[in-house]
Each structure stands twice: as structure tokens, then as C-alpha cells.
Amino acid sequence: MSNIAAILAEKHCQKYTKGFTDCVAEFPDTWHLDCENQRLKLQRCFQSNETVIKVKEKCDPEFSVYEDCITRNTQEMERCTSEFQKFISCADRVAAKST
To answer: 0.85 exceeded by the pTM?
Structure first.
């Protein structure tokens, strides 16, 4: 994924991103339960990044739709690709204005 928001988040929170994604890979069926600690660490890291804060403020509606989708489809997250792309498009616009 080569979008600006993902690159900024990866730079700022690399070890937490890796910890969360590794956990999700290890527990694909129960990641929403087993990876809560890693998710919270990643969330705290993202909350300290200025660009990520702006993305959260400006793209909250898109993110909420995506988050609702993955919550409803924990076993089939690929069903949420469209919602994810809408969120990423918004995040890219906001991040581009911040750099």
C-alpha cells in the first residue's frame, strides 16, 4: 500500500503496527479478542501523530463505516474493501495537505 497516510503511520508507529499485524496473522479467527493489547498500543501511538490526528478528525465518518463493517464481518474482512478504500482516499487527501 503506497498511500501517504499509511506511510506516515508506518514511520511513526512501526513496531506497534508490526505487533498488531503479527497478532492478527497468528489469530485470524479471534484477532478482535486476542489482539486487544496490541491494538491499544497501536492506537495510543497513532494518537500522538499530528497527521493521524487530523485524519481521524476529518475522516471519522468514513472510518466509522469501515470499523462497523469489519466488526460485522470479522471472519470475512475482505467484504469491507470498498469501505476501506473510501477511508484511505479521505486519509490521503488530509495527509497530502499536512505535508
So the answer is: no
